Amino acid sequence: MAERPASLEISEYAGECIREDQEFILYRSHANTAEMRSILLLTPASMRPRQESLKKLEHEYSLRRDFDSAWAVRPIALSQWNGREALVLEDPGGEFLHRLIRAPMETRQFLRIAVGLSSALGQLHKRSLIHKDLKPSNVLVDTATGDAWLTGFGIASRLPRERRSPEAPEFIAGTLPYMAPEQTGRLNRSIDSRSDLYALGPYRCRCFLNYNLRARTDIMHLNRDRR
Length: 227
Prior knowledge:
Helix content is 26%, strand content 19%. With 227 residues, it is an alpha+beta fold.
Protein backbone atom coordinates (compact mmCIF):
# COMPACT_ATOMS: atom_id res chain seq x y z
CA MET A 1 0.00 0.00 0.00
CA ALA A 2 1.45 3.37 -1.05
CA GLU A 3 2.42 5.73 1.74
CA ARG A 4 0.47 8.99 1.87
CA PRO A 5 2.65 12.12 1.73
CA ALA A 6 3.01 13.92 5.04
CA SER A 7 1.27 17.27 5.27
CA LEU A 8 2.20 20.32 7.32
CA GLU A 9 0.19 23.35 8.36
CA ILE A 10 2.13 26.24 6.82
CA SER A 11 -0.53 28.94 6.53
CA GLU A 12 1.15 30.89 9.33
CA TYR A 13 4.44 31.16 7.46
CA ALA A 14 5.48 34.29 5.57
CA GLY A 15 7.81 33.71 2.64
CA GLU A 16 10.73 35.61 1.13
CA CYS A 17 11.68 34.64 -2.42
CA ILE A 18 15.31 33.50 -2.54
CA ARG A 19 15.37 31.74 -5.92
CA GLU A 20 13.15 31.91 -8.98
CA ASP A 21 13.18 30.50 -12.49
CA GLN A 22 10.59 29.77 -15.15
CA GLU A 23 9.44 26.58 -13.44
CA PHE A 24 9.76 27.04 -9.67
CA ILE A 25 9.97 29.64 -6.93
CA LEU A 26 11.78 28.88 -3.67
CA TYR A 27 10.86 30.79 -0.52
CA ARG A 28 12.58 31.03 2.84
CA SER A 29 9.62 31.16 5.20
CA HIS A 30 9.39 32.21 8.81
CA ALA A 31 6.56 31.50 11.25
CA ASN A 32 4.88 34.12 13.37
CA THR A 33 6.21 32.50 16.54
CA ALA A 34 9.89 32.49 17.46
CA GLU A 35 9.68 28.88 18.67
CA MET A 36 9.20 27.55 15.13
CA ARG A 37 12.22 27.25 12.84
CA SER A 38 12.28 28.66 9.33
CA ILE A 39 11.53 26.33 6.42
CA LEU A 40 11.95 26.40 2.66
CA LEU A 41 8.94 26.21 0.36
CA LEU A 42 9.31 25.15 -3.26
CA THR A 43 6.27 26.00 -5.38
CA PRO A 44 5.54 26.01 -9.12
CA ALA A 45 5.98 29.44 -10.66
CA SER A 46 2.69 29.09 -12.53
CA MET A 47 -0.76 28.94 -10.96
CA ARG A 48 -1.46 26.22 -13.55
CA PRO A 49 1.72 24.17 -13.48
CA ARG A 50 2.50 21.40 -15.91
CA GLN A 51 2.16 17.84 -14.66
CA GLU A 52 5.89 17.42 -15.17
CA SER A 53 6.56 20.14 -12.60
CA LEU A 54 4.24 18.56 -10.03
CA LYS A 55 5.87 15.18 -10.63
CA LYS A 56 9.27 16.72 -9.87
CA LEU A 57 8.00 17.88 -6.47
CA GLU A 58 6.59 14.43 -5.74
CA HIS A 59 9.78 12.72 -6.91
CA GLU A 60 12.00 14.88 -4.71
CA TYR A 61 9.75 14.13 -1.74
CA SER A 62 9.91 10.38 -2.48
CA LEU A 63 13.70 10.46 -2.07
CA ARG A 64 13.64 12.07 1.40
CA ARG A 65 14.78 8.95 3.27
CA ASP A 66 17.96 8.81 1.19
CA PHE A 67 19.02 12.28 2.34
CA ASP A 68 20.88 13.43 5.43
CA SER A 69 20.57 16.94 6.84
CA ALA A 70 24.38 17.17 6.98
CA TRP A 71 24.64 17.44 3.17
CA ALA A 72 21.15 17.71 1.66
CA VAL A 73 18.12 19.98 1.98
CA ARG A 74 15.65 17.34 3.19
CA PRO A 75 11.97 17.38 2.17
CA ILE A 76 9.54 17.39 5.10
CA ALA A 77 6.11 17.31 3.50
CA LEU A 78 3.95 18.03 0.47
CA SER A 79 1.42 20.71 1.23
CA GLN A 80 -0.55 23.69 -0.12
CA TRP A 81 0.61 27.29 0.23
CA ASN A 82 -1.06 30.37 -1.22
CA GLY A 83 -3.17 28.22 -3.49
CA ARG A 84 -0.27 26.22 -4.91
CA GLU A 85 1.30 22.84 -4.39
CA ALA A 86 4.37 23.22 -2.19
CA LEU A 87 7.27 20.99 -1.25
CA VAL A 88 8.25 21.81 2.32
CA LEU A 89 11.96 21.47 3.06
CA GLU A 90 14.26 21.88 6.01
CA ASP A 91 16.19 25.14 6.05
CA PRO A 92 19.87 24.52 6.83
CA GLY A 93 20.61 28.23 6.53
CA GLY A 94 23.35 29.53 4.30
CA GLU A 95 23.13 31.19 0.92
CA PHE A 96 22.71 29.87 -2.58
CA LEU A 97 25.97 29.51 -4.43
CA HIS A 98 24.79 31.39 -7.52
CA ARG A 99 24.43 34.52 -5.39
CA LEU A 100 28.04 34.29 -4.26
CA ILE A 101 29.66 34.02 -7.68
CA ARG A 102 28.49 37.21 -9.32
CA ALA A 103 32.13 38.29 -9.12
CA PRO A 104 35.36 36.22 -9.10
CA MET A 105 35.66 34.37 -5.80
CA GLU A 106 38.63 34.66 -3.47
CA THR A 107 40.77 31.51 -3.70
CA ARG A 108 40.50 30.42 -0.07
CA GLN A 109 36.74 30.77 -0.07
CA PHE A 110 36.50 28.86 -3.34
CA LEU A 111 38.57 25.97 -1.96
CA ARG A 112 36.59 25.90 1.28
CA ILE A 113 33.30 25.70 -0.60
CA ALA A 114 34.69 23.23 -3.17
CA VAL A 115 35.63 20.81 -0.38
CA GLY A 116 32.15 21.06 1.15
CA LEU A 117 30.44 20.63 -2.22
CA SER A 118 32.61 17.62 -3.12
CA SER A 119 31.84 16.02 0.23
CA ALA A 120 28.09 16.52 -0.19
CA LEU A 121 28.18 15.10 -3.71
CA GLY A 122 30.20 12.13 -2.49
CA GLN A 123 27.54 11.34 0.10
CA LEU A 124 24.85 11.47 -2.59
CA HIS A 125 26.77 9.07 -4.81
CA LYS A 126 27.36 6.67 -1.90
CA ARG A 127 23.59 6.19 -1.91
CA SER A 128 23.66 5.33 -5.65
CA LEU A 129 21.84 8.54 -6.49
CA ILE A 130 22.65 10.80 -9.44
CA HIS A 131 21.59 14.44 -9.15
CA LYS A 132 21.54 15.24 -12.92
CA ASP A 133 20.95 18.97 -12.37
CA LEU A 134 23.92 20.07 -10.30
CA LYS A 135 24.40 23.85 -10.63
CA PRO A 136 25.08 26.80 -8.29
CA SER A 137 21.38 27.55 -7.82
CA ASN A 138 20.91 24.02 -6.43
CA VAL A 139 23.63 24.36 -3.80
CA LEU A 140 23.33 26.11 -0.42
CA VAL A 141 26.60 26.96 1.32
CA ASP A 142 27.81 28.30 4.65
CA THR A 143 30.58 30.70 3.67
CA ALA A 144 32.16 30.58 7.14
CA THR A 145 32.52 26.79 7.38
CA GLY A 146 32.34 25.74 3.73
CA ASP A 147 29.50 23.31 4.50
CA ALA A 148 27.30 22.63 1.47
CA TRP A 149 23.79 21.25 1.06
CA LEU A 150 22.40 19.93 -2.21
CA THR A 151 18.84 20.52 -3.35
CA GLY A 152 16.85 20.43 -6.59
CA PHE A 153 16.41 16.66 -6.81
CA GLY A 154 13.38 16.78 -9.09
CA ILE A 155 15.06 14.70 -11.83
CA ALA A 156 17.51 12.76 -9.65
CA SER A 157 17.85 9.07 -10.40
CA ARG A 158 18.21 6.09 -8.09
CA LEU A 159 19.91 4.10 -10.83
CA PRO A 160 23.71 3.90 -10.79
CA ARG A 161 23.56 3.98 -14.60
CA GLU A 162 20.88 4.97 -17.08
CA ARG A 163 20.72 5.73 -20.77
CA ARG A 164 18.82 8.55 -22.45
CA SER A 165 17.43 8.54 -25.95
CA PRO A 166 18.19 11.61 -28.08
CA GLU A 167 15.78 14.50 -27.56
CA ALA A 168 15.42 18.04 -28.84
CA PRO A 169 17.30 20.49 -26.55
CA GLU A 170 14.08 22.18 -25.41
CA PHE A 171 12.86 18.84 -24.02
CA ILE A 172 16.06 17.77 -22.26
CA ALA A 173 15.69 17.65 -18.47
CA GLY A 174 18.42 19.54 -16.66
CA THR A 175 20.37 22.74 -17.28
CA LEU A 176 22.40 22.77 -20.49
CA PRO A 177 25.40 24.88 -19.37
CA TYR A 178 26.11 22.40 -16.56
CA MET A 179 25.02 19.21 -18.31
CA ALA A 180 27.30 16.32 -19.22
CA PRO A 181 27.08 15.44 -22.93
CA GLU A 182 25.68 11.96 -22.23
CA GLN A 183 22.61 13.52 -20.60
CA THR A 184 21.57 14.91 -23.97
CA GLY A 185 21.27 11.37 -25.36
CA ARG A 186 23.61 12.27 -28.22
CA LEU A 187 26.47 10.12 -26.99
CA ASN A 188 26.42 6.36 -26.69
CA ARG A 189 27.27 6.49 -22.99
CA SER A 190 25.37 5.79 -19.80
CA ILE A 191 24.59 8.49 -17.25
CA ASP A 192 26.31 7.77 -13.95
CA SER A 193 27.94 9.63 -11.07
CA ARG A 194 30.57 11.06 -13.41
CA SER A 195 27.83 13.09 -15.08
CA ASP A 196 27.47 15.06 -11.84
CA LEU A 197 31.23 15.55 -11.62
CA TYR A 198 31.20 17.07 -15.10
CA ALA A 199 29.04 19.94 -13.77
CA LEU A 200 31.86 21.03 -11.45
CA GLY A 201 33.84 22.32 -14.45
CA PRO A 202 31.47 25.16 -15.37
CA TYR A 203 31.15 25.90 -11.65
CA ARG A 204 34.91 26.49 -11.42
CA CYS A 205 34.76 28.83 -14.42
CA ARG A 206 32.08 30.91 -12.77
CA CYS A 207 33.89 31.09 -9.44
CA PHE A 208 37.31 32.09 -10.76
CA LEU A 209 36.49 33.97 -13.94
CA ASN A 210 32.92 35.14 -13.36
CA TYR A 211 32.26 33.51 -16.73
CA ASN A 212 28.63 32.54 -17.16
CA LEU A 213 27.97 30.00 -19.90
CA ARG A 214 25.01 31.09 -21.94
CA ALA A 215 22.03 28.74 -21.94
CA ARG A 216 22.30 27.88 -25.63
CA THR A 217 20.20 25.23 -27.27
CA ASP A 218 22.98 24.58 -29.79
CA ILE A 219 24.79 21.74 -28.05
CA MET A 220 27.75 21.82 -30.40
CA HIS A 221 28.36 25.48 -29.57
CA LEU A 222 27.89 24.72 -25.89
CA ASN A 223 30.55 22.03 -25.86
CA ARG A 224 32.90 24.32 -27.82
CA ASP A 225 32.52 27.02 -25.12
CA ARG A 226 33.69 24.54 -22.47
CA ARG A 227 37.04 23.81 -24.18
